[in-house]
Amino acid sequence: MPGVTNDPFTEAIGLAELMPWSVAPLRLGRTWPVAPDPASLRSRWNTFVAAGEAERAALLEPTRTRTLHTAAAQLPGRRTGTEPLAHAEGPCPDPVPLLHGPFDEQWLIPDQRLIDAARPELWRVADDRQVFLVEQGYVPDAGGPALLASTVLPEGRSPAGRPGRVRPLYRRPGGAEPNVAPGLLTHLSGTYDQEVTAADLFAWILVAGDRDGSRDIRVPLPDDADVWARGVELGGRVLWLERRGTDADRPKLPGGRRPYVRAPLPARPTEILYDREEEALLVGDGRVSPVPAAAWDFHVSGVRVLEQWFARRTAPAEPGTLAALRPASWPQPWTSQLLELITVLTLLAELGPGQAELREAALADPLTTKDLERAHVLPVPDAARHPASVLDHQEEGPGGQFALL
């Protein structure tokens, strides 16, 4: 890691001590319940329920945990059938946004009968107040951010390497009960002589957290209030970029640096290339420029983000499968999403040096594990590492029975 030696960083506090509750990534088990556009998902579902039982079995792509005859509970907050898929009928459940990979928001059919491991504990706390911290898979010497943020439910699987963990900011719906070591926010508020919220801590972790040369993610906490304030401000900027904002509040590059479509993208592009000399992205016969090299070179877990984003929309699907039901040509919204992604990656890359400086400043005079032990913040109680009970949340189980959770 540039600018930070391994020795002091290994003394930084482990992420698991600061945000104790984490959940494993979703395990979908099949690709067809996810798509970049909801219309494709509805078409796939309609084709599935119109098929006879023998054809359904092939279309489902059954796994050991999900077959035509597997019943499953509704996902929290979702109204879907709970009978086995052999008897499923009716319209497609309304697709929901899913962070399918780094900076790749797609759509998912929210039916637990289709998902091998849906992690219901994440769905219970996923609402408009929630923010998820997503650990990226470890690839030695790969570079790129170790942590990303998402306001929509993340799949949590990295492009390459061992999957990380998903850490919700809040343990209960409605932004209640921060997923923070008990007593930590009070201790930090006293240290910095200002109120420290869970959102402040999340912002700091997002910009300061990194790997210590191994799989472990650590977070240096500064003893200096000014360093802390600068980090929280920068973390807010990073979070805003990774959330993308609303239609009226989209990230933009200044002036003529904004990427434009210089030659129309083809109906069915099959490759994406980069011309460094011209700062141009070549999408088949189409051309987008200017595209800063920093956007093209942005990697996560050793995988180039722009290449993977493109491949997940254009890679051939096996004929006759439900995944093969997709737009016949490149939709215009994908072009707009591509331009926005280029902008976001460029702006995030520009913030990288500032993040490295903050880590160095924090490591020069850090709070230590011993400091948190003396403040009785560490060790973290075991209960903080487990999901909170949601006693008033009713969910329909298999066969229409209800469970109180």
How would you explain this protein's 3D organization?
The protein is of the alpha+beta class. Helix content is 32%, strand content 17%. The chain is built from twelve helices and 21 strands. It has helices at 6-10, 15-18, 38-50, 53-60, 120-125, 184-192, 198-208, 225-243, 293-296, 305-314, 332-364, 369-374, and strands spanning 13-14, 34-35, 96-101, 104-108, 132-135, 147-150, 166-168, 170-172, 176-178, 210-211, 217-219, 221-222, 260-263, 272-275, 280-283, 286-289, 299-300, 303-304, 366-367, 394-396, 402-404. It has a four-stranded antiparallel sheet, with no helix packed on it. A three-stranded antiparallel sheet has the order 1-11-10. The protein has a three-stranded antiparallel sheet with strand order 2-4-3, covered by helices on one side. Helix 7 (198-208) packs across helix 8 and helix 8 runs antiparallel to helix 11. The chain starts with 5 loop residues before the first helix and ends with a strand. 40% of the residues are buried.
